[in-house]
From TrEMBL, chain A:
Keywords: Lyase. Residues 143-153, 187-213, 386-416 have a biased composition (Acidic residues). The keyword Lyase applies. It comes from Halosimplex litoreum. This is Carbon-phosphorus lyase complex subunit PhnI. Residues 135-166, 181-226, 386-426 are annotated as: Disordered.
UniProtKB/TrEMBL annotation, chain B:
It comes from the Archaea. It holds the Pfam family PhnG. It comes from Halosimplex litoreum. Keywords: Lyase. GO terms for biological process: organic phosphonate metabolic process; organic phosphonate transport. The keyword Cell division does not apply. One of its GO terms (molecular function) is lyase activity. This is Phosphonate C-P lyase system protein PhnG. The gene is phnG. The keyword Lyase applies.
């Protein structure tokens, strides 16, 4: 096995980088500010934060700007930055009921306690191009030459808002649990649920709990515990999570859920104050949450529901819902369907792994390819010799790996994003 | 998070206060050249956000949150602050402000007033967000009888 050295030098690589930067600055428009990205393209920054596993809205906006809108690249930048930081500590576990929801819909319960709150969404309106947005800002002439549409205004300015003190809405899971329809967790499973009462119910306030795994520090072992699954799915690549979740509904799986609820809101981030010992709030993290109801197939004598759960940084309902499907699918522990195989799912959905493994194909593979060529030529030469020996068929024997595929065991083994894309020739 | 004189409440209010405001107060405190020791340099760090998922009620690690802590000693009184994001100056200023209020420094009343404004702004923002989202509450109707 050989390796390839780049002899062109740093100057040439610098020129390539300069060209990349030039692309960002091309055109006559003003340079995008990080504030603009943070304020106006929050879906992009949310995706970068979610896949980066790092909540930092302004840094995510910076990463999106630097990556020229490539969300996976932006997530990569966030993970690389993350790897330079120390850990302060873990927060006290926050309950979903503490979510300050600005949007909450329940497709399962029409009259859900707390109400169906649409919040900011265009789910129920037509998706048509809005040409008024073209040339909206700062006196720039709009596409149709009409200056009147230039200055944006707050469409909610004239709302007559209701009074009342802010509160949180009850989690639908608790509504179902109160009705005895929730499949209670297995107390004996892996020593879990140490804080549970004798009847298996947990008041959710007990400080005693099993320390959850942290997949950013310890690699996932298979079969994974559910806390590992949820953490890995939470920072999975949006498209991959969506595609695999969709596969289960498309027929390559058994989970076609009813969503108990989908919520968008803010979760408090609390640490223990070093002087007072109180749990104190540092900030609120915007999250998207999804719960799905699926039948428990193996408990026909006592029909109850099983559930899938999805939670993701930022506003990303599609990913949270797909995560819910994958969580439910993995609990089925099926052997035949991709979405039910945790090893397949978790090995596939991480954007940094796929980023590194796919992108590394652009790096020089001269030695690998030369060895493939040598093999192909040797096979062809042998075939010609066989043909010259008056072989009736004249076909070479397919006794070698002629598809030319290199062994696919060179995938990155580390969470380190730098290592994930490194390497020359395999 | 109502009482700026309470240390835990003050921590939350400092974390929610604009960094420029904190810096102005810190500058006025430090202008008197008190004995300052930096016990913890303001550097961004990670706080792992844990969530108790509602199915099995087991905690899991959702992901990390970037925050910047800082700790100082001001004329022998310690101050601690942590602000969201990468914000070294705000964190340092917040720690100075925390120590100043703890020591009942001359600037305390102004700080308390500013932090109270932060508390009011936070409540107003929550109330507005709550009211706006409730203004979009809808009732879905099922129509089996009509079909």
């Amino acid at each position: 096995m050989g390796y390839v050295a780049v002899t062109a030098g740093e100057e040439i690589i610098g020129r390539a980088e300069d060209l990349f930067e030039k692309q960002r600055l091309e055109g006559d428009s003003e340079t995008l500010s990080v504030d603009q990205l943070d304020d106006q393209l929050s879906r992009l920054t949310a995706q970068a934060m979610s896949e980066g596993g790092l909540y930092a809205p302004r840094l995510a906006a910076l990463a999106v700007k630097q990556a020229q809108g490539d969300t996976v690249e932006a997530a990569f930048l966030l993970r690389a930055y993350r790897s330079t930081l120390e850990r302060w500590e873990e927060t006290e576990p926050v309950d979903p009921d503490e979510l300050f929801a600005t949007r909450r819909v329940s497709p399962a319960y029409k009259d859900v306690p707390g109400g169906q709150i649409l919040g900011p969404t265009k789910d129920y309106t037509q998706r048509l191009l809005d040409f008024d947005l073209d040339g909206e800002a700062n006196g720039t002439e709009s596409a149709d030459g009409d200056d009147a549409a230039d200055e944006p205004s707050d469409p909610t300015a004239d709302w007559d808002l209701p009074d009342g003190e802010p509160t949180t809405v009850q989690n639908v899971m608790e509504v179902l649990r109160d009705d005895g329809l929730v499949h209670d967790p297995d107390e004996t499973a892996d020593g879990a649920d140490e804080g549970a009462d004798a009847d298996g119910a947990d008041d959710g306030t007990d400080d005693e709990y099993e320390e959850p795994a942290d997949t950013t520090r310890e690699p996932v072992t298979h079969p994974p515990d559910r806390d590992e699954v949820l953490q890995e799915l939470a920072r999975g690549e949006t498209g991959a999570v969506t595609a695999l979740g969709y596969s289960a509904m498309r027929g390559y799986g058994q989970v076609h859920p009813t969503l108990a609820e989908v919520r968008v809101g803010k979760l408090p981030v609390r640490i223990t104050h070093p002087y007072t010992g109180d749990a104190v709030r540092v900030t609120d993290a915007e999250v998207t949450e999804s719960e799905a109801v699926v039948p428990v197939y193996e408990k026909r004598e006592d029909p109850q529901f099983a559930f899938g759960y999805g939670l993701s940084f930022g506003r990303n309902e599609r990913k949270a819902i797909a995560m819910t499907i994958l969580d439910a699918s993995i609990q089925l522990d099926g052997a035949d369907e991709p979405a039910e195989n945790p090893e397949f799912v978790l090995d596939t959905v991480d954007g940094m792994d796929s980023f590194g493994f796919i992108e590394h194909l652009k790096l020089p593979h001269y030695v690998t390819f030369q060895s493939i060529l040598d093999r192909i030529r040797a096979i062809r030469e042998r075939g010609e010799i066989d043909g010259a020996d008056a072989d009736v068929d004249g076909a070479p024997e397919a006794d070698a790996d002629v598809d030319g595929a290199p062994e696919a065991d060179d995938r990155p083994e580390t969470d380190d994003p730098v290592a994930a894309t490194g390497g020359d020739d395999d | 998070m109502d009482d700026p004189r309470n240390r835990s409440d003050r921590f939350e209010l400092i974390a929610a206060t604009d960094g420029d405001v904190l810096e102005r107060f810190a500058d006025s405190v430090l202008a008197e050249e008190p004995a300052l020791r930096v016990l913890q340099e303001p550097r961004p760090q990670l706080v792992m956000q844990r969530v108790r998922e509602p199915v099995e009620r087991r905690p899991f690690n959702l992901g990390e949150v970037v925050a910047t802590p800082a700790e100082v000693s001001l004329d022998g009184t310690r101050g601690f602050a942590m602000v969201p994001g990468k914000a070294e100056r705000a964190a340092f200023s917040g720690a100075v402000v925390d120590a100043a209020v703890a020591a009942d420094h001359a600037v305390t009343e102004k700080v308390v007033a500013a932090l109270s404004r932060t508390a009011d702004a936070y409540k107003d923002e929550r109330r507005r967000e709550w009211a706006e989202s409730r203004h979009t509450t809808v009732e879905f109707e099922t129509m089996e009888d009509d079909l």
